[in-house]
Amino acid sequence: QLRLQESGPGLVKPSETLSLTCTVSGGSVSSSGYYWGWIRQPPGKGLEWIGAVYDSGTTYYNPSLKSRVTISVDTSKNQFSLKLTSVTAADTAVYYCARRREGTSLRDYWGQGTLVTVSS
Amino acid sequence: QSALTQPRSVSGSPGQSVTISCTGTSTDVGSYNYVSWYQQHPGKAPKVIIYDVTKWPSGVPDRFSGSKSGNTASLTISGLQADDEADYYCCSFAGSHWVFGGGTKLTVL
Questions:
Q1: Helix or strand or coil: residue B52?
Q2: How many CB atoms sit inside 10 A of residue A65's CB?
Q3: Which of A34, A100, B48, B57 is the most exposed place for a label (fewest CB within 10 A)?
């Protein structure tokens, strides 16, 4: 059974960089045919797609966040990561990692989510 | 403001059916059959219940069904059960990225 687990600091200061890692177990992040992505949810609000990385390393980002986001994959550690620069309070959210099957809209596996608060 | 428009809330009694709409534009819902629906209980991660407009992931009962007409996708839940009370989100491909709806809170009366 595939499992995704987010990890990283729960508190980040304004203007600094938010860094999260998603560790994949029970499967391989280098398996062909999948996108590995990040989605966030501010407290009490809806979901927002941040971006994703394909198994080839190609990345796709939300146009509204593109200038601040980097998503990368580390096949040696079976992980993929998110970096979001110049954070503000508006970036406070639960961050989820998820897998999407290529050629479909099926996001079938999600992490449990991790709350990141931006505050000084 | 969310890219896809959903009603803030819907409600129904056990055994009844409810439909949640998801309105986008010709650049997202209207152009692609890549619409998915997610159910989210409080404090939990979203769970996919419909993908590619009408398809069921493994293990999801056929009480949940999806459809699309023009720029609007819909999720219908029949035979409402208490455990269906949750937030529901639609999501659509938009050419180079993905957009979510603002979410709909379903209350089972």
A1: coil
A2: 17
A3: B57
pLDDT above 70 (res B2): no
Dump the DSSP string for A42-73. -TTS--EEEEEEETTS-EEE-TTTTTTEEEEE
Query: Which residues of chain B does A112 touch, with a Cβ-Cβ cutoff of 8 Å?
Result: 45
* Cβ separation A105–B57 shorter than 8 A: no
Pick from B51, B96, B102: which is nearest to A104 by CB? B51
Cβ neighbours for B109, distance < 8 A, ≥ 6 positions apart: B11, B12, B13, B14
Q: What is the pLDDT of residue A56?
A: 73
d(CA B65, CA B73): 11
Residue A5 CB-half CA count within 13 A? 9
Which tokens hold the place of B48? 């996919």
Note which residues in 3-32 of chain B have CB less than 8 A from chain A: none
Report angle CA A65, A40, A34 to the nearest 5 degrees. 85
Residues in chain A with CB shorter than 8 Å from the CB of B47 are 110
Per residue in A4-59, pLDDT (tens digit) is 999 999 999 999 999 999 999 999 999 889 999 999 999 999 999 999 999 778 99
CA dihedral A109, A112, A117, B2 (to 10 degrees): 50
Closest CA to A94 of A48, A59, A35, A25: A48
Helices (H), chain A: none
Tokens of A89: 């309070």
